[in-house]
Every structure is written in C-alpha cells, then in structure tokens.
Structures
1.
Amino acid sequence: MNPAGGAAPSRTPRGGIIRALLYLRCMSLRNLLLSRLRRLKQPKYLVGAIVGAGYFYMMFFRRSRFDRAGAHAAAAAVVPVDLLPAVISIGAVVLLIFVALAWLVPDQRAGIAFSEAEIAFLFPAPLRRRTLIYYKLVNSQFAILFTVALLTVFTGRWSFLPGNALIHAAGWWMILATLNLHFMGSSFAVTRLMDNGITPWRRRLAVLGVIAVVAVAAAVWLGRDFRGPVPSDYANLRTMAGYVNSFLSTGPLRWLLLPARAVVAPFLASGAAAFFLALGPALLVFAAHFIWVLRSEVSFEDASIAKSEKRAARIAAVREGNWRAARGALKSRAAPFRLAPAGRPEVAFLWKNLLSTFPLFRPRTFVILALVIVAGVNWMERDAGFRGLLPVFSATASMVGAYVILLGPQLARQDLRNDLGNADILKTYPLPGWQVVLGQMLAPVAILTGLLWLVLLALALAFHPQHWAWLTPALRVTIAAVLVPLAPVICALQLLVPNAAALFFPAWVQTMRNRTERGIEMLGQRIIFVGGQMVVVILALVPAALGAFTLVFATQWLIGPVAAVALAGAGVLAILAVEVACGLWWLGRRFEQFDLSAELRP
Amino acid sequence: MIEVGGLTKRYGTFTAVRDLSFAVRPGEVLGLVGPNGAGKTTTLRCLAGIIPATAGACRIAGHDLAADPVAAKRALAFFPDEPRLFDYLTVRQHLAFVARLYGVEDHEARAEPLLVELEIADKADQLPGELSRGMKQKLAIACGLLHSPQVMFFDEPLTGLDPLGIRRMKDSIMARARAGATVVLSSHLLHLLEEVCSHVLILKRGEKIADGTLADVSARFSNGETGVSLEEIFMRATGGTES
C-alpha cells in the first residue's frame, strides 16, 4: 500500500504511455476547437469569423474572372523541366543555410519547448527521456501539418509550380518535418558539445571553419574544372539557370547539397511518378534524422524548464500588450528628451510612451533621415544617369505615406490601448480626462507625423512630373507647406478612433491586444476594426475636403492658385482641429466615467 | 480630511456600496474591514476618483471630488493592492514622470530621501521587471508620496510583503499619520488594523455595520467583556459570514 491508500502500479506499459500522451494531445486539440466554436455564440466572434472566412476565401480560393482568364496563360509559365534542377539546387542552398544557422546560432543547452503544464505533469511522471522526445516529435506534427496546410493554400496560387496540391502538401511536409528533426538533433549535439566543455564561440569557429574549408575546396575545384560566367550565360532565364545549376553540381558542392536536394525534390515533382521517384531519397534523409534524434539522449530538462518559464513570461507580456517585454528582457533606456519637472503634463505622457517604443523613434533619427533624403534627391538630380530614379523614388515615398496613413494608427499603439491595464492609476492623476487622452495619443501622433513629414519632404523634392504643367514649383512648395501642419492633426484624428474603441469597447480591444489569440475570427475582428476606422476617418474628412474644394474654386480666380491652396489649407486645418478638439473632449468625458473592471464583467 | 456622505455605487442592478457616510480627520487612520465582496475596494476606488459614485458626495481635503476632481486628486494618493507600474520606466524615470504630472518642481530633492527611506536608492536605474514584489510596492509608494499628499488610500497594503516589509510599511503609515496625513486603508489582516488604525469602519454587503474608534466599536460588540480582539468583534459584527 502506498500512502495514498492504493497499490502503486509497478510499471506502466509502453503502449499505455504513448496512448496517454496521444490522448493528452488529441483532447487538448479537441477542447481548443470546441472552445473556439463555443465562443462563436458571442456576436463579436461570430461576425469576426464570417468576415475572416470571407477574406480567406477571397484571398486564396476564389478564382476571379481575371484569374480564370490568366490561368491558361499561366499554365504556359510553369517552370520548364530543364529549369527544375536549378530550382531544386537553389532550394537546397536555402535549406542548407537554415541548417548552418541551426549549428551557428544557439548559445544555450538544448531546451525542447514544453508548456508549463506539460513540464508539471510529464517531467515527474515515470517516463523515459526518449518517450518525451517521441512525444514532442508527434506533438510537433500538429503544428507542422497546420503550417503545411497554410503553405499549400498559399503556394497553390503560384501558377509556375509544377505538380498539384497533394504533391505540394507532401513536399512541404517532407521539408518542414526534416528541418524540425534537424533542429532538434543539432540542438542535442550542441548540448553534448557544451557538456564536453566546448563553448558556443569555439563551436561557431569550428562550424565557420568547416564552411570555409568547403568553400576553399569548392573554389579550388571550380578553378580547375569550371569556367567563369560569360555574357551568353546571362542571355535569358534558361541560360542563367543552367549556369547556376552546373555551378552547384560541380565537385564538393554536388555532394554537399545532395541530402538537401533530396529533401526539396518531392515538392517540385511534376507528377505522381516523379514524386514517388523523388520520395525514396527524401525518406532516407528523413529516416537518418529520425534515428539520429532518437539516439541522441542528452539532458534537456533544465533548459526546457527555463525555456518554458521564458515562454510563459513572454505570453503573459503579449497578453498585457507589452511587445517590448515580449521580445525578451527589458533594458532601461536613456530618455528621449529631458523631462522638466514643470510644464504641460501631456508632455510627460509623450516622454513616457516614447520610452516604451523603439529607440529609433527619436528626433535625431528623423533629422538624419531628412538629411539622407535631401542628399539622395540632390545626387539623383545632378547625375543624369540616375535622374530616371526620381519618379521611382516619388512613387515609393507615396506608397510609404499611404501605408503610414492606412496602417500607422493600428501599428503605433503607444497610447490608451497599451495602458488600459493601468487605467486605475491614470485616473488618480490630477488631470481632466481630455488631458490624459491627449497626452496618451501624443507619442503615436509624433511618430506618424515624423514619418509623414519625411514622405512630404521626399515628394516636395522629387515629385515634379513634367506633364503636370500646373504643378509649378511654387504650388508644390505651398502644398507641402500646407500639409506639414495638417499631418499631426490628421494623425490625431485617426488615432481618436482606436482610442475611442479602447474606451467604449474595452473588452473587444483587450481581446484584440491579446495577439496570442489566433483564429479566423480574430482575423475578421481586425479587418472590421481597420475598416471601421477608415469609414470614420473618411466621414470626418468630408467636411474639411468639401470646405477646401469650395475655397480653392471660389478664390483661385481672385488670389491665384498658390494663395488659394494656402487659404484652403488653413480652412482644413481649422475644421480638423475643431473635430480633434471635440473628439478629445468627448473621449475625456468618457475616460472620467470609465471603469475597466465594470466594462470587462461578463 | 475626508468627508463622505451617502456614497452609493451601483453596477446595473447590483449595489456594491449603499449610502455610506463617514469622516476621517487629519492624523487619523481609518481601517476598512469587511468580508469578501463587502465593498471595501469599491469604496476606496470611489474615494480616489477612479470610478464615479452613483450617488452621494465625497470631499477630499476640502475639495468636492465630483465638482473639482483635479484639485481633490492633487491632494490624494491611492496605493492599489497590486503595484501598477510602467514596465519601461526605471525607478528614477517613474518619479520624474509623476513629478511632472503633479508639478513637483523640486522632485529631485524630494526623491532622494524618499528612495533612501524606502531602501530602493540603489535600484534607481532599474526597471520594474528587475525588482522584487516588495521593491515594486515600495516604488509605487514612492510615486504616491512624492507630491506629499494630505490624504492616502491603501488597498491591502501588506499583500506580498515579507515580515520586515510589513513592519516598515506599518511604521511608514503611522509616521505619515502622525505628520498630519489622513489615511484610509483596507485589509483582511485584523491584527494590522489593531496596531495601525485609530478608527475602524466595518462593511458588509456594501453597508456600514459600525464605525468609530477602535474602543467605541469594541465596546459596542464586546457585550461587556474585556480584552475582546478585533477579530472577535469582526466575527460578531458580520455574523461570521460573507452574505
């Protein structure tokens, strides 16, 4: 009898252990799916799921008329059979780079990723180390299969690929599963080396030495047997591919890439026969890795526990919306500027929130970028050979500007969205609500404004299309000068929307902040949110735009286009400033009444 | 000075605090006690201006919390049970931030002795993530004390502190009260309240059961017995149940 009252089992049958571990995995997956399905009863998840599914369908499954029309043309664009060896060789090189990194990067003992619950239940359980490894290998198949499904759907739209979806899926599985085994095996080998007193830097030097030896051997071999490229090798894609393939198939490189080629080949098989022909060597490589991993018994428990603790802390940080902490241990930073003890309190929030973001977002960085833009445009204008790049530069700047306007407010979140958890403390500060909201918004406004000003600078200097005669230099400068003060106001207007959502729908925003939450419904929620923000901003811009057009048309005949644009700009600025002020006052009132604990009650 | 009259807080149909009235004078330490769900934290959050009361009036250092919340908040400090800190500000940066919000122009002169008193001077350039639970608590206290508040609210101030930390916290609260601060604290640790508080207010289901000096409340529930502990008084006052 044991102290708990029953007879302790003398030994757990091996099949029983495997069944128990599979049961754990399958039940976890089943319960995850059930909980996802159950939460669809809540409208916010159901609507999100519908929108997310629609997006997924439109992006990956729906064949538009355009696609169908292009399908026949695309069929002709499938990689020709004589190019396949080159494509396989390049794929093998990429795979080999990953393999090299697996030996170069690690600086700690092998720590297989277990969850905290898995460590609590499995590590003290009467299981052999090899059983745990086996469990992790089976466990990793769920993630691999999910990734395979995504990649197959994604690469299904690559019309130039030979083969079909089934071949692609099996090919992806072979690549990912073999890489997974190699990462685990190499981490065990690295651990063994460390246990034998070989430091990470000595190991790295040794790996780099091996790479250097192979490179030198290849160079010597190539110098003896292989000719350098000649202009005819660059004639077209086929000749280039032929040259690359012959280069990668010469001497030591051929043998070095052989296993990696074997792993990549099934993915690029053109049909069933070619696939099965390629599968044999790939399975040999896979089997060799499998045996290697199962025979590599090293002590990974300590490192796994440390890894799981770090992982749990990272997940907790992400759930708090703290991405800086999620990236690893935080380090103290120099303040973005000196915060004087007296002055507008809003500036203190700007100072605080700039400290929470990348150290790159500092005035100095923007000044340096502005100087680079000025120097670059100047250089392109002076050099006739590069003047043709100016339109490309302008187009790129416009695209960056569009991204900043569309996605910037969603990405720059150093405002109330990130500080909702501290709402209680923020509310004890002796400030009216609008000042807290304004202060919290200043950091993202400053960051986005800085980016937009750089875009404006680039466009003002580089955008002067010759067929737009009406866009005189004076008018161009005036438009830029008008947009400079408008940029922060437009950014503030946009940021009012997500901050309003944080205060009016905190439960929704809390869920969205939790980026560990995944699923099609979360994707849909984010799409709804971005769409809603755009609609609100467009509605807010309508009065200002109408006023501006009216002013320009009414006054340009009298005062000229330059003055009319300046006048319209001032009018737009006034209208948007009033809108922002009203928004701040409204959100401030809401903040004063806000009680997060009550809002998050189920 | 804190004056509370008819304070009521409702969440929908649920009443968390009902018609609560009391006053705390400078130098007094009022202990809020009650079973779980009695409304202690809600009361403190209303008094600190974190959540608006549904009805009733609160005056903090002579300022009406509803009519002039900014002036009232300038006079108070709230210390939650779990220290709320900004992960990316160091100890010193926390103090600089708070100083700007409260307009404490001589904050550097004030901060140094405060950090020394709370024994975190050597941690001044560390982030909250590098501090122990007790150190974080001390940092939150330093931030709250920087503007020399006249009124202080402590919600479970001893949570997570070691015995030495508990002793220091008790000494600190009593020292501030002796210096003229008005203190309200909530705690389940009745022996702490016996040591620190001059007054006690017993809540149950959002309603006041009893309040007054420790001696007054003891006399009311001791039934003529002597040496009755606050724990026994609490059990008698609340009937020994949460509901």
Note: The mean pLDDT of chain A is 81.
2.
Amino acid sequence: MTAGVLPVWWDDAADGPTNMAADELLAEEAERRGGLVIRLYAWSEPTVSLGAFQPIAEAEASAAIAGLPIVRRPSGGGALVHGTDLTYAAAVPRSHPWGGSPQALYDAMHGAMVAVLGMLGFDARLHLPSTNDPPGDALLCFARRSPGDVVVCRPGRSAMPTDPKVMGSAQRRLGTTVLQHGSLLLTTCPAVTAEARHDGLAELAGKAPEWTAKSLADRWTALVAEPLGIVREFQPQAFAAGRGQEIASRAGRFRDRRWTARR
Amino acid sequence: MAEMKFAKSHEWVRPEAGGLATVGISKYAVEALTDLVFMQLPPVGKKVKAGESLGEIESVKAVSDIYAPISGEIVEVNAALPGQLDTLGADPYGAGWIVRIKPDDPAEMAGLMDQAAYDATVKS
C-alpha cells in the first residue's frame, strides 16, 4: 500500500468488455494496495452497460437504445448509455471505512460531487426518497432515482422532488472488496432516442459550461480523498498500461453472450 | 437444534439430521443490503468449495455474492425464496434458508465462527 495516496488512473477510450475487465482488475488492485482506488475512463463508441441482473430481453427490445452495443456490468443498478458521461470505477477493500455498508461508498463519491457542482454554481444535492420517485425497475439508470443519487435543480427554479438525476452509481460487493461503477451525465446523449434522453450538466447549467470532464474529475477526486486524510495522485500511466494482456484475457468473459444474456 | 456457525462473509450454516447442512445469510447481512430485488440460486447438484460463490443477491444498488461456508454438493435450494425476498429479512435463520449442502467434510464447520464470535465481528 502507498500510504496517504488515492491513486487515480485516467484511461483512454475502450470498448465495453475491455472496460469491465479493467474494472475487475481494479478491484484486485484495491485489495493489493489496501485502500481506495479510482479509474476514470471513456468508451470507444456509445455503449449500453446493463446492470448485473437486468433482463437482456428488455434492453434488446428497447427502441430508446436500439442498435447500441451492450455490455453487462458485474455491478447492479440500471442501464447506462455511455458516451457523453464521465464514467468511473472505484474500489475499496471491504475492511475500509467505506467498504462496510453499500451507502458509505455511494455517499462518499456522490457527496464530493455535490460539493464540486456547488462550486460550479449548480444547486446540487443528494436525493432523498420521495413518493414522486419513478419506478425502481426502469431500464435506464437516469430514469430511476434512489436515495443518495446526485440531483440538480433546474436554473431559476426551486428544488423539486422530481429534479433531474445527473449522477448514479451501483456496486458489486465481492468477497474482500467492493467495486462501484458510476456515471456523471455531462451532456444529453444523442445516441438515445429523443423521448428517452435525459438532461446532463450542460443542459442544466443555464449558461456556457465553465468546466470540462477533466476539470470536474480533478476537483472531484481531490475532494473524495480529503475526508480520508490522503492526497489524490493521478497516475502517470493508464491503468491498462502493463496489464493489457490480462485485461484482454478477462474481457473474453464480458464479450461472451452467455454473460451478456445471463438473464 | 445444532449450533449455527458463521463465515466471515456473513453466511450461516447449520448441521441438520441426515448429515446435511442448511445455509443462509445473517440478519446483519440482510439488513446491510436493504431493499432486495433479485436473487439467483445455484442449480441442485452443483459442487462448491468453501469460499466459492454459490449464488448472487441484488439490492437496489448492489449485487453481492453468496459464498459457500463449507464444501459440498447442493442437494436442495429454497426455490420459493427469489419470489419472496422479504422472507430473508423476516426470518433469515428459518424460512429464509437458501440452500442445503451435503458436506464433503462435516469437520470443516469447526473452522467457522460461533454466534458470539460472529456477533463480535459485526459489532467491531
């Protein structure tokens, strides 16, 4: 373990199976280092990542995401359409202060993002359960709203229980580690049909964006590290560097139809 | 009733008549997961080693593996459970049982924690 450091990798774009395989290795890296690790990454083409147990038939029948490649995550939650989001994977040992209960890691990641968005002028908050919440089994993650999701008030309006969600996360709780996937919607995704699109930060800003994905990630990861009393350290190489063969080997499982259509 | 033993990964196992052992997950684990939505059970006849995944359970935002606390063959599953996940919270040590295993080595249970030791780990 490198004491006092939160290692953060910023990886190049890759396809869905490669990203899932890299995240599986990231969980092992968290165990090896004995602390929190974060990987930020992009996608080589707009891709749907399906929650661990979402029915494949529902995804394949959805006109909203027709024609997009689908990869199944090991983590739970709803389907995400990647391409205009900031995607992250975070992993901690289960013995870590944020590894004990599912909500601890959500709140740590999402709470830091609320603070960053506040600095940028957004009226952001963690969602509280409401009777107005949409069904919890909606196909798309951004059509769902769970306690602790990051929601943003529309410019010039008061906070409403129906304020749009801009960040959601989901976990895989492994034997000794926790892997959390999450997505911050930067701008609405044109790969989704118009009626199924959700506003991202750019649409909710009400003005020209004064941030980039990198500047957001810079502030966010620094704030994530603060309560742990450690310092965020961007790694000089991509996480995939030196792990390419292992990632390629593991990606095979995520390319396999038996995994993608397991339910 | 025979003494229940616990694994670090929050599964319990209880010896039954006929040499079988019943397996479930602890009340603490169920409460930590909250709002269960889906469960996948293993097929009857599957052989598992202690520490291997024998099923998966999904709550609103997290998927967790259920690990075999002992090695053996799955001889029965609680097939009604995935359709009645509330039972896991209401009666985790009774009607919320998950599988029955024919142990490879009944003595393997001696390496697991008793209730007091398990309670101490989840309170620490």
Note: Chain B has a mean pLDDT of 93.
3.
Amino acid sequence: MQSDMYTDVRKRLLTVMILVPLIPFAASLAIGYSSYKSSMRQAALERAERIADSHAALIGSFLNERKTDLDVILATIGEQHLASPGRLASILASLQRTSLAFIDLGLTNQDGLQVAYAGPFDLTGKNYKQSKWFKQTCAHGSFVSSVYMGYRHQPHFVVAVMARQNGESWILRATVDQDLFGNLVEGVSIGATGEAYIVNDLGELQTEKRSGGALLEKEQGLVPTISQNAKSSGTFGQFIYATTPLNNNMWRLVVRQNTSEALQELDWAALCIAVVSLLGGGFILILAFTVSNRLIHMLHSKEHERVEMETHLMRAARLAELGEMSAGFAHEINNPLQIMKSEIALMEMVSEEAGMDAPIQEEQKATILDGLHQLGKQIDRCASITRSILKFGRHTGPEITDVNLSEFLPELCEITKRKAEVSGIEFSCSVPEGIPTVRLDAGQLQQVMLNLMNNAIQAIEERHGNEGGQLKVAVKKTDENHIKLLVQDNGKGIRSENLERIFNPFFTTKPPGKGTGLGLSICHAIIDAMGGIMEVSSARNKGTSFTISLPIKAVG
Amino acid sequence: MTTEMMTILLVDDEERLLETTKKLFEKMNIQVFTAQSGQQALNMVETHGVDVIFLDVKMPGFDGMQTLREIKRINPLAEVIILTGHATMEDAVEGLKLGAMDFLIKPLSMKEMLKKAEEAFEKVKRHSVLLQSMKKD
C-alpha cells in the first residue's frame, strides 16, 4: 500500500516535471520554426519579385531600343531608298555589326505589301494586310508581336514601326533573333532550379523554359490564373514565383524557383531545432528523473523518520501507562508481603513461647499451620500479580494475531481491578457469550484499553475520592463485521470545550509534568490504524464513555 | 488514658493483617484495636484512648489523609505512623505536614514496627507529662 502511494506520487511528479517545462519549450521551438519559415518564405518571394522587376526593366529597354533602331532608320532614310533591296541589306548588315538582335528587315506599304526585304528568307512581295502585327502597327504606330509562325513557318516575333511620308504610310518591320532574346530572358541567376520565361496573353510560351517547354507551347496551371496587367507573386505547386507585365501587358515575365530550394536554409534550421529539442528534452527528462527520485527519496526518509518517531512515542506512552499501573502493583504486592512478615513473626513467637526443646502443643500446631496456609495464600496472590505484570509487558513488537476477547478482556480487567478497588471503585467487566475473535495487535489494544481505564479511574477519584466510583468495561457484537468496546465511568467528565480536543497530541488538562498529552492521541492513532473508530461522549460531573468500534477482520 | 500500658490502633483494609498483628502485639501485652476503614478508625479514636496509630493511606472509602487530619483533630496527642504499600513523594510530604510522626513502607518487620511504636509511645508520654505540668501551673 505504501509503495503504491510512492509509485503514484512518483508518476505525478514525473508527469508534472516533464510536461511543465516541455510544453513551453516545444511551443517556443515550434513558434520559432514557423516564424522563421514564414520570414524565409517572405524573403524568397521578395527576392523573386526584385529579380522579376529588374529583369522586366532590362527586357523592356531591349525592346524599346529595337523600336528606336527602326524609328531612326525610318526617319532618317526615306522610303524610296529603303525600297531598294540592296540598300535595305546594307542597313541590316550595319545594324548586325553593332548588335545581332535583328535577323531580317522588311518595308511594307500601307496596303500590307512587302515592297522590299533583306534577310535569309524570300519574302519580297508577300502581303501582310491580314496579319495582326500589320493591323496593330497601323493602329498604334509601333508594335512588338507575340511569337508566331508566319510565311517562314518558324516561330519568331517581329518589331514594327510606322511612318507617314508624302501622304503615304510605310511600315518598317524587323525579326528579332529568338536565340538572342531567349538567352536574354533566361539569363537570371537564382539557384539551381530558378528560371525566367515569358508567356503571352493566350498563355503561349514566348521563350523556352529551362525546366522544359518549347516555344508556343501552352503554359499549364499557374499563369492563366494570374491577372494580366498587374504584378503578382506567391506559391504555386512546388514553386515560388513572381510575375511582371511586359510589352503593353501582352506578355508576362515569370520568375520562379523551386520552393524546397528557396527554403533550403529551413532544413538547417529544422536540424538545429531537432538537436536542440533532443538535448533540451533529454535535459528535462534527466532533471525530472533525478529531482523526482530525490524528492521520493526524501519523502521516504521523512516517512521513515515519522514511523520511527511514532514507534518511540508509542513506547513512551506504554511506559507511562506502566508507570501509572505501578502504583497498583506496588500496593498489591507490598500488602501480602506485610501479611507474610507478620505471619512469620507470629509463628516464630508461638514456637519460642513453647521453648526450644518442648514438643509442639495442639494449639500451637494449629496456629503455625494456619500461618503457613496464610503464607501460601499470600504467595499465590503475589504470583497472580506478577503474572499480570508479565502479560502487560509481553506484547512488545507489532504482531497481529487472533485475539480471543473473552479471554483477553477479563485478563486486562484483572490488572486494573486491584487499582480500582483500592480507590473504592465498583468495577464491572462484562463479556457476553459468542464474542468473535478479532485479528489485531493485542499489545496495542491492551495499551489503548489500559489508557482508557486509567483515565477513567483518575476521573472517578477526582470526583468521588475513594467512595462511590463506578467503572464499566464491556464488549458487544454490533453487526456481522464489527464489535464495540465500551469503557464507561461516572467520573468528573470532560468539559464540552475540551471534548473536541482530547484526541489532539499534547493536549492535556493535567498540571505540567503530570501528563504528556499524548495518551489519547496515540490511542486514536492506534485504533485508526486498526481500521476502527474511537468515539467519546461525556457530561460534566456525570461521567464519560469511550466507545471503540473495531472490524472483526484485520485491516491491511 | 496515658498509663504505662501502650494502646495501639491498626488501620488497614487487609483483615488478616489486622488479625495477625493484633495477636502479636497482644502477646507482648500491648492493647490493640483494629479498624478496616477510616470511619471505623475515627470511631475507635473517639471511644477508646489510643496512643499510637498505624494508618494505611490507600483504602477504599474514607481517604487516609482525611482520616489523619480527623484523628489529629480529635486527639492531638496520639501519634500516627503511616504504613503504606505504595509510597509516593506527594503522599509522604502531605502526611508529615498533617502531623504524622513517620512514613513507613510495607513490608515492615515486627521488630521495626514495635520499635517505631515504642518511640511513638515515648513521645506521647513526654508530651502528656509536659501537658500535665503546664496544667498545674
């Protein structure tokens, strides 16, 4: 039972000592990790946005430069000069000397007819009246097209500008080198999985994707969901992305990176957190175990000390009880001794009277025999007292045995009876038939009963002196499982204000040095440990009765 | 009452003790009365002149100390010797304060008892002579 309690306490202690520090510890780690993760993600997004912005500016200025190139040519060189294929070829050659951006040049009149062409394809005389780029250029003055197949049946895009001369409109158009433009767009550096590409408003790829995707292929998923003419950023699938509109919102530049790569540092942070949790958790566990072990050990030793102290107190109370009894014992032994002395003296005197050598007379013989008989009687009386004393001292260690109350109680009463009789107390001890045996420590029960009887005798003496006292000790069976012991006196009684306190340790009404105040508290503790109940009722100057209800089967 | 013959009163609750001791003293030509309780003892003191009283203090009924006080009131000249089986310091001090001549613990031999009785009787005689001479003046 005791060790169960310790296991229970240990469990609770451990639970508290582990959970209390562990919960905030784990929570702070989790919060730290999640805020670190979100700031990492934010940083990755901002990086992607920054790159998208600056890259879009670069691409935008490249396209503007190309338009400007064509504007300058159209403005400075007249359409009549440009219309000659030789002149156009020489202009293309001089343009290609500074930049390889242009593959070909073509001059188209206002009816869409290409009047002159310089470049690798044979496109002179083609009519572009129905082409989108032609219509848009006519409408806006300049235009950069999306990638399309055209007459050459190859994906390409064109830059076109329009000028009015002599009441006629002329359009100068150039094809941009797809490889050069592709390299320009793709040329961003963000990690191993980072890439940049352009899609148009129909979701067609305008540059090749490094992660796989040819020109004019439809972009799946992400791009169609994004607003056409605003910047955006976020995560889609396994990517972190940022987009920026380009080319009059016809195109969008997409910069994206694999989330796992962008947040790579998180792995390191997670590893750190794992190590810290392991070390911290281990520390908490070790601390909890050592501290709780130490506490349990302390509890153990305190409990041990308490038990030791209790044993000492019990022994002290027992000795006090024995001291109380000694008055009765001494009186009862010294009286017969006195009788024996006087008997011997009388016998001596009678024999000396007759003279040493004279034969013993009948009358003298009778006196001497009577004296001897009386000696025997008084010796028996002493012997019965010493037997009682031995019985009192016999039960020392705690030892639970079957106690037959119909023998135990009369023996116990015998010890007290003499003391009571000297004080003129009418003593009754009633044990009815059929009282069951109880399993308990006889020594302890004896101590309790003697204590109660001694108290009763004192209370009677204080009220009645040496005459008129009554002390009743009785036992009865109350139900199948319980017996009730009664010690009732007609002594001075206990004041009602003291009645609640009589079982408190060190409570006494005796003058200093007369009582320890421990007797009844120890009795109460003993009966409690036996699983019994000890109760008291008292009326001032009428008497007191103590009842002890005990289970027939022992507890524990 | 105070003659050359000593009169003793034995007070004890043990009947046999009274009997035997009485026989012993009588064999020595000493007059002995016995009482088994304090009340009886007081009656004896009132009706018979006694010189020396052996008194047990632990008796049922009338308390020994109370008996002692009463005896001293009725007959201040009589000497009381307390003879008890159980001696406590408190009893001894109280007894001597109340005027007991001695406080003796059982068991006591006949010889010692006789010696104490004679000492007490000497004292009684001395006191009565003193009292007589004072009366003459």
Note: The interface with chain A takes residues 14, 16-17, 20-21, 23-24, 27, 58-63, 83-88, 105-111 of chain B (CB under 8 Å).
4.
Amino acid sequence: MKLKLALATACVLGATGLANAQDPNLARNLAATCANCHGTNGKSVGGMDSLAGEPRDKLLQKMMDFKSGDKPATIMHQISKGYSDEQLALIADYFAAQK
Amino acid sequence: MLNRREFIKSMGAVAAGTSVVGGLAGCAGMGGGKGGHVVVVGGGYGGATVAKYLRMWSKGSVAVTLVERNPDFVSCPISNLVIGGQKTMADITVSYDGLKSKWGVKVIKDEVVGLDPAKREVRLAQGGTLSYDRVVLSPGIDFMTDQIGGLAGNEELIPHAWKAGPQTVLLRKQLEDMKDGGVFAIQIPKAPYRCPPGPYERACLVANYLKTHKPKSKVIILDANDDIQSKKGLFLRAFQGPYKDILEYRPNSALLEVDARNRVAKLEFGDVKADVLNVIPPMRAGDIATKAGLPLINDRWVDVDWLSMEAKGVPGVHVLGDAIFPAPTMPKSGHMANQHGKLAAAAILNMLDGREPSATPVVMNTCYSFVDDKNVIHVASVHQYDAEKKTVLPVQGAGGVSVAASELEGKYALAWAQNIWADMLA
C-alpha cells in the first residue's frame, strides 16, 4: 500500500492547489463529516479514536487501508470508499494539523 | 435555559423596540456579530449543529440566535432504549448550556410562528420579532394526524413517541402497565418518514423487553410499506430468530382509522386489537416550513439547493434535516441533519462574506440500530455532489450494512451518541 499512498499524496499536491482556489475551507468541511463519530475537529469524547494531532501519513495510510480492504473494520471500510483518495488526503492533513 | 427573569428581560427588549441582536452586541465574548446575524429555528440535530459550527468557524464574528421551544435537547436516537427499559430520559437529555457558555449562542426558549423573507425577520409566539441576515429552519417534522380517522386529540391513548420527550415516557409507562399476554402493535407510515430503521428497532427492543418480563405477550408490526425499509436482512434475522415466537411482521398494512378508547387499529382488511397501540402517523416538514410558504414537494417536504441548503427560490432561508425533500437514497436521520448543518454553516459563512458556497459538498450517514439490549447493526452511506444533476448522490460501491449484529457495534452505537451530542452541543 505504500506505493498507493505515495501516489495519492502526489495527486493531492496537484489537486490541493486547485481545490484551494475553489474553496479554502475544503479540508475543514470534509473533515467535519467525520466529527459525528470522531468528535469535533477529531477530538473524541470517548469510545471512538481521536484523530486530532495524529501524524498525517499514519492517518492517510489507515484510511487507504480501510478503503482497499487491507485493514478490516465494522464500518470504516464502507465509509472510506465514499471519498476520493484526494479527499482522504485533505482530511488527513486537517486532522494532523489539529492541536 | 433562560430563567424567568432573563426571559422577561429579553422579551421586554423586543417590546421596547430594541432588537435582541442589539443586546447581543454588548455582550462580552459574543464577538459583536460584525460578520452578520443568523437566526436558527429549532435546536435538534440540524439546528444545534449549524449554530455551533457558525460560531466556531467564524471565530465568533457571526452572531447566532437559536430559537427552541423545549428547555433541553432530548435525543430521538437512543430513545428506543428508554422504551425498551435500558436507558432513562436523563441519559438522552442534554442541556443547551454548552452552546450558550462555550460558543456564545443566544438561546431563546420560544417558538417561531412566522417568517417574512422580504423583511428578513421571524415572529415569535410569545411576542416580538428577530431580524436576521440569514435564517436556518431546522423544524423537524409534524404529523398529519387527520389522515387517520379517530387519532386526532388521542395521542395520550395512542402515543407516537416519534418525537422524544413526554411521549417517550408515556409509551414506556404503557408497556410497563400492560398485562402479561397483552399485544403491542406498532404502525409504520409510508416512506419517507423520520428514521427509516427506527420502528423496526423499536419493535425489537419491545419484543426483547416482553420476552424477558411478559413472555406471553405479542408484538405486531403493521407496516404501511410493502417491505422492511432499512437493514432488511438484519432485521429479518432478529424477527425470525430470537423473536420468532413473539413478533409478527405484516407488510401492506396501512392504518385507516383507530378506535382510541379500545385501542383497535382498523386496516383495509380487518381490525387489530391491541393493549398498547403505537401509531406513527404520516408526517411532513415542521409547521413553520409550510406556514412560511416555502416550495414543497408532494405538499410535504421543502425543496432545497444542495450547495447551500437554501429553500429553492427563497434567498436567505436555509432548511435542514428531516423537513427537506431528501436527495436520492438519503435517509431522514439525526446524523444526516448534523451533516446538513455543517454544509449549511460552511455555505452561510461564504455567502455572508460575499463568496459562492463550496461547489463540492459531501455528506455521509451512519445509523446504528439495537436488535436487543446489547447487539447492534448499522447502515452507512456517503453522498457526493453531482454538478450535472444538481443534487448529492450516494457513492456507488461505498456504504453498506453490518455483516451481523454484534456487541462491538453496540459499544460503537453508544459512543456515536456521546460524540454526536458533543459535536452539536458541547
């Protein structure tokens, strides 16, 4: 999966510029769709993983592994498939930047 | 909650012609509302979320007033566990104090009874008006009780318990008072209705309670639809497994009339006599949406623009949650209303700033259902905006349901509740 992660990152570097031109808050808005379960800005109040401040590559690798099916899950394998690799990378960027 | 004195004070300000917003501007920590004023109508999953996120994302520069008629938030999700006997009302009740003290949302305990989009103001039931730059209606649903003969005015004898609160307590009490050997019948209206899996979850939890405490009793599901509306295979497994001797599922069972005193459900083909009769009536967008003259689809649900959640053709009026006409396969759920709230908050902040809303909104849904006191099943979906079709569409190949009911998902369901309540209110 390392190669796929690297590719996703490369795609994002390209896509991010464009996305930012469209809406500077795209990463924030995408990450907010995770907050119902993982807490506002990725700070869980318990029972779910906190995502805030986790290393960006670790978060992205995890989501990509859920998406590919490499990492088994009850629900995250179904949810991660709903986002493009570029969107997952923006989400990882956002949570990694949270204190 | 506003105490009585504060309440009278705020109403006095309105009567004296000073707007409530004017009062906000002087309030320390409110940010002064330099970025505009948004009035939010309804403090449920959609309204509470949009109120918090507007304050959080604007860093306090947009003033937010939330008008809510109930003193506290009471959750519909998890309320079936109160009916099943596992949880209490205190477990599903959350104060609005976090929105007030942490986020500086002005919370007014009142009801909005009128909306004037041209003047940009809402009218309050207890007198006075609030002016706004943008308004968000998150009014939930109201029942079309008159579609079922004999039901109007008899909601105490025949509870719906489809808005959490006193009705939840009432239904639980009726089940506790029911004799062993009694019949609990639940009527499910034709889709679309609030919380597609909710009635089937309720039937399971009541069956679970009766099986343990009143084993001679029966559960009858009278479904106006021709089949189970959500998580079909998983609910069927519960119906045909642990509940096979106690629960009966009857599709195509639209309710025409009730004999409230004798708790008889009158269907097209025959009557069902129950000891506890739980009728979830047909429903539509909350009253304020219909009163305000917003565009409705099927005379029931508000037609919205998916980039902004604005009612189509009514600039400045955003509508969220169960009250809207859903995008394809989108459920009416608390989780989805929370997602609408965030989509609307992002769009409103852009629009107050003179910019277009984001062109690529995404929303997703997760819904957990208990099939007994511990084991839980889910359904999930992700919906992305399609610029050509101008709606959000479910991503093919994504989403899905549980493999089987599990205790692990039971833990996740309760953690979901704690986290989403905090995401809205803390």
Note: Chain B is about 30% helix and 25% strand.
